[in-house]
């Protein structure tokens, strides 16, 4: 009789424990499912690739050259105490590219193409600014106009050329690369003509403050200008429908039109904003040296701007975009350039090394590779969950 009671008690205990076992299995399954969803989101995120590329570059420098991250205070040629180091150089030298990446992202998302005339546009806007500051003289002792007036003139001209490109793309339905090829070809000659074939020089040191350092401020001024541009763009995307309308037009222009959005205006506006970004970049460029060389200023920067957009995980065919991804892509490109210089790579081989690394980053960020990684992660997590379930049972 006692033995029978013991068997009954054990049986009841197993019945009581069975729901707990199923609860544990369910909890583990739920947590594994959440992990799968989280990992899938990370793999498919637009920011994972630029962050990963930047992390790889920093890890390479950490292993091969720990002094790469050293930031020190030095005295520059103007006698001011400033911050110096590779990190400061990256933040400083990537300023123009980061600003251009903002405009290039909108252009790419809206029109499904790229503006290859931004380098020539910088030459034109920079030439206009120096013409306003120098007047009819080549190297006047005093500026012939306020710096604000020169900046406004450069912005107006650059936005007009942006409007020209935008009209060709949005109204005349010309492919973006073909439309901007016109200014890409003729732009530097226009800049040469604006200044009469000479290289104007601004002698007053105040103009250089915007491309270098303001006395008493140890951080390069372009870093502040870039930050302001990013904040303005972020606010515009947050408090207006610019981002939503741009994505809608890029994804399906016909559907956007049926929903009351004007695709022609959105594309046109994207190129005008691109022109404004070009003007700000030109202002930084020409104020670095207080002069301009029409043939070499911002050479090949349009390719870097397009690469920044691609590295940022944005589809070059238009549609959804990540502005922060493009900005990180710009800093990734500059970090790569600085790393190669620090590693002693010669200028002749620099572009080849840069091309190899960028091809790897772009391939890894492609939808095919992302989906493959996502599938591998899902299979691994599913097998782990199945094993855990069997073990509990």
CA(first)-CA(last) distance:
31 Å
Elements, N to C (H/E): HHEEHHHHHHHHHHHHH
Q: Figure out the total of helices.
A: 15
Strand content: under 5%
What does the average pLDDT come to? Answer: 86
CATH 2nd-level architecture of the domain at 73-344 = Orthogonal Bundle
The SS-based structural class is mainly alpha
Radius of gyration: 28 Å
CATH topology of the domain at 73-344: ABC transporter involved in vitamin B12 uptake, BtuC
Helix content: over 70%
Unreliable residue runs? none
Strand order across the largest sheet: 1-2
Q: Please give the CATH class of the domain at 73-344.
A: Mainly Alpha
Overall form: globular
Largest sheet: 2 strands, antiparallel
Q: How many β-strand stretches? A: 2
């Amino acid at each position: 009789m006692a033995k029978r009671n013991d068997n009954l008690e054990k049986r009841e205990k197993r019945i009581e424990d069975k729901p707990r076992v199923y609860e544990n299995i369910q909890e583990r399954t739920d947590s594994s499912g959440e992990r799968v969803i989280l990992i899938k989101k990370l793999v498919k995120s637009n920011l994972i690739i630029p962050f990963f590329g930047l992390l790889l570059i920093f890890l390479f420098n950490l292993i091969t050259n720990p002094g790469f991250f050293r930031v020190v205070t030095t005295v520059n040629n103007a006698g001011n105490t400033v911050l110096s180091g590779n990190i400061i150089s990256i933040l400083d030298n990537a300023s123009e590219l980061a600003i251009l990446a903002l405009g290039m992202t909108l252009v790419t998302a809206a029109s499904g193409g790229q503006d290859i005339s931004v380098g020539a546009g910088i030459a034109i806007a920079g030439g206009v600014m120096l013409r306003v500051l120098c007047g009819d003289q080549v190297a006047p002792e005093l500026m012939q106009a306020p710096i604000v007036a020169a900046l406004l003139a450069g912005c107006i001209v650059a936005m007009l050329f942006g409007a020209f490109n935008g009209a060709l793309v949005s109204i005349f339905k010309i492919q973006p690369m073909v439309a901007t090829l016109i200014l890409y070809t003729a732009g530097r000659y226009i800049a040469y003509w604006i200044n009469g074939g000479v290289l104007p020089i601004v002698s007053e040191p105040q103009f250089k403050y915007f491309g270098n350092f303001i006395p008493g401020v140890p951080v390069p001024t372009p870093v502040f200008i870039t930050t302001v541009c990013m904040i303005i763009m972020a606010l515009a995307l947050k408090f207006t429908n610019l981002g939503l309308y741009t994505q809608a037009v890029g994804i399906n222009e016909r559907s956007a039109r049926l929903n009351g959005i004007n695709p022609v205006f959105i594309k046109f506006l994207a190129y005008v904003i691109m022109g404004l970004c070009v003007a700000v970049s030109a202002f930084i460029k020409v104020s670095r040296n207080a002069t301009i060389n029409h043939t070499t200023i911002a050479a090949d920067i349009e390719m870097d701007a397009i690469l920044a957009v691609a590295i940022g995980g944005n589809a070059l065919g238009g549609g959804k975009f990540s502005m922060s991804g493009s900005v990180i892509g710009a800093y990734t490109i500059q970090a790569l350039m600085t790393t190669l210089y620090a590693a002693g790579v010669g200028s002749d081989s620099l572009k080849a090394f840069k091309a190899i690394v960028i091809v790897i980053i772009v391939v890894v960020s492609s939808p095919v590779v992302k989906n493959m990684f996502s599938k591998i992660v899902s299979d691994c997590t599913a097998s782990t969950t199945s094993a855990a379930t069997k073990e509990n049972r």
